[in-house]
Design goal:
- Keywords: Membrane, Transmembrane, Transmembrane helix.
- The chain crosses the membrane at residues 242-261, 296-314, 320-339, 351-378.
- It is a single chain.
- With 390 residues, the protein is an alpha/beta fold.
- The protein folds into 2 domains: 5-197, Spore Coat Polysaccharide Biosynthesis Protein SpsA, Chain A; 214-388, no CATH class.
- The chain is built from 14 helices and 11 strands.
- The protein has a 7-stranded mixed beta sheet, with helices on both faces. A two-stranded antiparallel sheet has the order 2-3.
- Strand 4 (47-52), helix 2 and strand 5 form a beta-alpha-beta unit.
- Helix 10 packs parallel to helix 12 and helix 12 crosses helix 13.
- The longest helix is centred in the last third of the chain and has 24 residues, at 264-287.
- The chain is elongated and about 80 Å long.
- The chain starts with a strand and ends with a helix.
Length: 390
């Protein structure tokens, strides 16, 4: 039976800066503990206990955010609370402010049938931030444990953190140990957050990974290259988020007005600016912890489709280059509005799409071409949903 219960610890304070819990510091706008919870949700865990030394308003806000979902989040104040709620279930213990790749949990915990296993690191200098267990070993920050090990809970000092208590009980019981290769630490596959430098390096790693995986082609990379190196920190600011939601609509309405009054070149510029924003929103959605209102994107999509219709049926305003940009921006808007899951249709390169748009616009087939592209994308969406519900 697979493990579907986990325990996260939130006890330790940052080593530098103002006194604050390490797990409540943000990587962009998502806290460390939210990163841990989201990872466990991705890995199909159903119950997540959070052991806390003190309950803060920020932590309760985080818990409230997840309560409407399919995962049960439970705050634990003491070892006795855990003993009463977890009974004899197997559970995954995740250390305070430990960030690791999904594959680590899959390979070492979920892919075998072990009920109890403690994962260790050697005591070399690179592992100094991890909790020391004895002269030669440190705890790697995660373990598979069984609820019945809490039977002698009264013998443990009350002032210990729950994770330290559980790991030491596991050591005393001599449960199965596994020494992890040290390159998991040196290569950043397992990271413990203890100071501001840890937060900064994790943010840089996350942004670099998202920038590479969220690409929709060469144009997307070209547009994002400059600001991704200098202005990524602005994405977490609420005024910037709001502006990026509203500006595409304003630019597109402006483009529609300019096209109506025969200023096709200026309309092209306004549409291009709207498209640049839309093409970058997938990346911002992943960096941001806030859900962005998709109704605004749907409005943008409707305006784009109306612009294409307006151009195609008003021959005096028909501008091939304008139609090219409109086709690209429409596809970008569809990507942003509707596509939730990575798939091969994400990698339709906009340059190839624009070349096809030029040919179709020149021969008068732009509208059928756009209909085929949109049908192709939505057929994939339908197929994804069918597979998801099988």
């Amino acid at each position: 039976m697979s493990v579907t219960t986990a325990l996260i610890s939130v006890h330790n304070f940052m080593q530098d800066g103002p006194e604050s819990l390490s797990a409540l510091n943000s990587i962009f706008s998502k806290t460390v503990v939210e990163e841990q919870i989201d990872q466990l949700i991705r890995l199909k865990f159903k119950r997540i206990f959070i052991s806390v030394g003190q309950i803060t308003s920020k932590l309760t806000d985080i818990i409230d955010k997840y309560q409407s979902g399919s995962v049960e989040i439970i705050l634990i104040r003491s070892a006795q609370d855990l003993k009463e709620k977890i009974e004899n279930q197997s559970f995954l213990l995740v250390g305070d402010s430990i960030i690791m790749e999904d594959n680590i949990i899959n390979v070492y915990c979920l892919a075998n049938n072990a009920k109890n296993k403690l994962f260790l690191l050697d005591s070399r200098e690179e592992n100094a931030d991890f909790e020391r267990l004895d002269l030669n070993n440190r705890w790697a920050g995660f373990a598979l444990l069984q609820g019945d090990m809490l039977s002698n809970i009264s013998d443990v000092a009350d002032d210990w953190s729950l994770e330290s208590m559980l790991v030491r009980i596991a050591m005393q019981r001599s449960i199965s140990h596994q020494q992890l290769p040290n390159n998991l630490i040196t290569n950043g596959h397992i990271v413990i957050v203890k100071n501001k430098n840890d937060i900064k390096s994790l943010a840089e790693k996350k942004f670099s990974k998202l920038k590479n995986t969220a690409s929709s082609g060469i144009i997307f990379n070209a547009v994002t290259f400059f600001w991704s190196k200098h202005f990524e920190h602005l994405l977490i600011l609420r005024p910037v988020k709001l502006a990026l939601q509203i500006l595409p609509i304003l630019f597109l309405l402006c483009a529609l007005s300019l096209a109506y009054f025969s200023y096709a070149e200026m309309a092209l510029l306004a549409t291009s600016l709207a498209g640049i924003i839309l093409a970058n929103m997938r990346l911002m959605n992943k960096l941001s912890n806030d859900k962005i209102d998709e109704r605004l994107y749907n409005i943008s999509l409707i305006i784009l489709l109306f612009l294409i219709y307006f151009l195609l049926f008003n021959n005096d305003l028909l501008n091939i280059y304008f139609a090219i940009f409109l086709s690209y921006m429409t596809i970008a808007a569809i990507f942003v509005c509707h596509i939730k899951k990575e798939g091969y249709y994400h990698y339709i390169d906009p340059i190839l799409l624009n070349i096809c748009s030029i040919i179709c616009a020149y021969f008068g087939f732009l509208l059928p071409f756009m209909m085929v592209i949109i049908a192709f994308i939505f057929s994939n969406l339908i197929w994804d949903n069918v597979k998801k519900h099988k």
